[in-house]
Amino acid sequence: MPEPTENPAELDRADAAGTVALSCETFRNWGRWGENDVKGTLNFLDDAKRAEAAGLVRRGVSFSLSQSFDMNGPQLGWRRRTNPVHTMLDTGTDAERGSQGFPHGLGGADDVIAMPLQCSTQWDGLGHIFDRGFAWNGRRAGDVVTSDGDLVTGIERVASDLIGRGVLLDLGRFAGTGGELPDGYAITTDELEACIAAQGESSRVGRGDMVLVRTGRLARARREGWNGYAGGPSAGLSFTTAGWLYRTEIAAIATDTWGFEVRPNEFDDAFQPLHQVAIPNIGLTIGEMWDLDALAEDCAADGRYDFLLAAPPLPITGAVGSPVNPLALK
Predict the structure, then answer these.
(1) Structural domains for the chain
(2) pLDDT tens digits for 56-83?
(3) Whole-angstrom distance, CA of residue 288 vs CA of residue 278
(4) What's the pTM value of the predicted model, to 2 decimals?
(5) HEC states along 5-43?
């Protein structure tokens, strides 16, 4: 069987199906942690790794890596993905008018939110993407996710796992102009490795790490307007980085983009092909729409690009993704 190329120029743009299938089969982790596994590469992030990561907190400074969850978000309604709708159930006005029915002058406020779970900063769970009818670990997709939700790899199963060593790879600063990569820029394996070398020892990437890749796409959206941020052109990882994602044995990866991989995708007829390799075959948890700008400024200032990253999903039973407010502590 031929080896998948790591050179984007060598991709056969007319053969998405064959190229994707080759990478899926080459970088497949099915059975690696047993037939009943539900965590995929999060198995690399064990207690020892978490204990080691706790030692990275020196100054005590904390960065939220989340976008806001409100009606001003990036979503345009594609496949019924909308921005959050926040509604008040009880307000101060109700309390002032005495209409809440509480005794001895007590008043209060209460609210509700309705939103797709992947409308802003979020994790993709292992039940989010399938490969030719199969889900993570070789299970039939229809046996995993039904109208009742993800019955096998629901996001609640990893609610305590996503805390450990985070590493920022600021590709926007390393390879871009003004800290930003242009839309359609495909980040290669060589560039990931070169960025690590340039940033120094604190950027080493290995087993059990959670890697954050900054492209600068969110910074541009904030400056110029959303302008297709959700689903439109963007810098991102090249399809040819699948081997790097597999070999490094990272636990998870997240970016400041809507879709993690470069858009437009690198084939004439394709949709998110790297997702098809990474999630159901490698078993990789992927984060999207993270806000990495303030963290990147701090990392550049102090020369340290690793930190304790705490990013647990909400334990929503049967969900294939979850909103998250990731915290980087340095």
Answers:
(1) 8-77+116-329 (3.50.30.50), 85-114 (no CATH)
(2) 999 999 999 999 999 999 998 888 899 9
(3) 14
(4) 0.96
(5) CCCHHHCCCCCHHHHHHHHHHHCCCCCCCCCCCCCHHHH
